[in-house]
Amino acid sequence: MRTTDQEPVRHIASSLPSRRLTGLDVGAGTGSYTEQLQRHLAGRASILALDSSEPMLRILRQHGVPGDGTAVCCEAERLPVKNRSADFVTTFNAVHHFDLDRFVDEVARVLTADGHLFVYTRTPEQNAQSIWGQAFPGFSSHETRLFDTATLRRALRPLGTVDIRSFDFARSETPATLAERVRSCAYSTFALYGLDELEVALEEFLESIPSRAVRWQDQNLLVHARRGG
Q: Which one, 29, 150, 205, 225, has the greatest CB density within 10 A?
């Protein structure tokens, strides 16, 4: 039920060295971004998919772990790999679930001397401009876990050079698909509502949007910290 954005994956693949690589995808969930990153790297990377949710990793394993990698259940702040063993670490739409400073400390431990960290996420301001922030009652006020740009830059700066790039996406969905995303909690924000509260908010949301295709603009950030830079 989540959209897998191709542009940041292509950018990550083009930013990495053209040699055999070892990577970690932290907060991999069911593996949609892990799979796409493996595909864009054209088989030149072994990617370990990591997540704290065993049920989500079980789905990933049922579909086949991408490439020649494996999937391991662990916390983002305690990565089950050796010091300086990863050429790159990625995390897609998951960093707001982590203790940011502890996560970055752990990334610093596992990255090689010229390693890369890529964090794909959304700021509170970007969240407020999404269809959910604009039209779904209480969405922005319920979602207090997102980091702003300054916080992300500060946290990642000890790793090395930090580059921040924004990506804009034109979205279009039917009201039925949007409602299904809400009821399936495709975004973890919806799990922060009570069941009755969520149904009331969904009813108000559906009444406020067009009855056919719903169109809006999304924006996300890709934060890239590069060691040795």
A: 225
CA nearest 152: which of 118, 108, 127? 118
Task: Write out pLDDT tens, residues 25-39.
Answer: 999 999 999 999 999
Among candidate residues 183, 151, 177, the one with its CA nearest the CA of residue 164: 151
Q: Tell me, letter by letter, the H, E, C secondary structure of 155-214.
A: HHHHHCEEEEEEEEEEEEECHHHHHHHHHCCCCHHHHHCCHHHHHHHHHHHHHHCCCCCE
- Tens of pLDDT along 12-63? 999 999 999 999 999 999 999 999 999 999 888 999 999 999 999 998 888 7
Phi/psi of residue 43, each to 5°?
Answer: 75, 5
Say how many CA atoms lie within 13 Å of 130 toward its Cβ.
21
Cα atoms found within 13 Å of the Cα of residue 150, Cβ hemisphere only: 1
Is the separation of the CB atoms in 221 and 121 below 8 Å?
A: yes
Closest-CA residue to 106 (of 84, 79, 73): 79
Could you tell me if 26 and 91 are in contact, meaning their C-beta atoms sit under 8 angstroms apart?
yes
| CATH architecture type of domain 6-226 | 3-Layer(aba) Sandwich (3.40)
C-alpha 102/C-alpha 111 separation (Å) is 14
List the chain domain ranges.
6-226
